[in-house]
Specification:
There is one protein chain. This protein is an alpha+beta fold and 114 residues long. The protein is 39% helix and 28% strand. The chain has helices at 64-78, 81-110; strands spanning 2-8, 11-16, 37-43, 48-53, 56-61. The strands form two sheets. It has a three-stranded antiparallel beta sheet, with no helix packed on it. The chain has a two-stranded antiparallel ribbon with strand order 4-5. The longest helix is centred in the last third of the chain and has 30 residues, at 81-110.
């Protein structure tokens, strides 16, 4: 299948089958150096990882190690740490509220108020 792969400084960023998304002007200046970015048309499968090796594009199956590298790179590039911390706090708060609500319901039921 034909994919349009975004590389920055010859490092894989993303891939899409939709040519209309292959516009460097759509990239955020804060997170990308557009002068080092390029879209390359590559024949590969959905689960393939395109990469550069000796100035040549190669493809290998996407695996857990590659996924881990990409996630770490994304954390650095997009500063994911803060939102993830906020999400964890919200989940804790949500759980606390659920527990409090359950206790209130039990008390109401016990006192025949409901």
């Amino acid at each position: 299948m034909k994919y349009f792969v975004l590389f920055e400084n010859k490092k894989f960023i993303s891939k899409t089958t939709e040519k209309e998304y292959c516009n460097l002007d759509l990239l955020d200046d804060e997170h990308f150096d557009k002068s080092k970015c390029e879209y390359i048309e590559v024949d590969c499968d959905d689960n393939d990882y395109p990469y550069y090796e000796n100035d040549e594009i190669k493809v290998k199956p996407f695996d857990k190690e590659i996924n881990k590298e990409i996630i770490e790179e994304d954390k650095t590039r997009f500063n994911y740490e803060e939102p993830v911390d906020e999400m964890v706090e919200l989940k804790k708060e949500n759980e606390t509220l659920k527990n409090e609500l359950t206790l209130i319901k039990e008390l109401l039921t016990k006192n025949n108020i409901v």
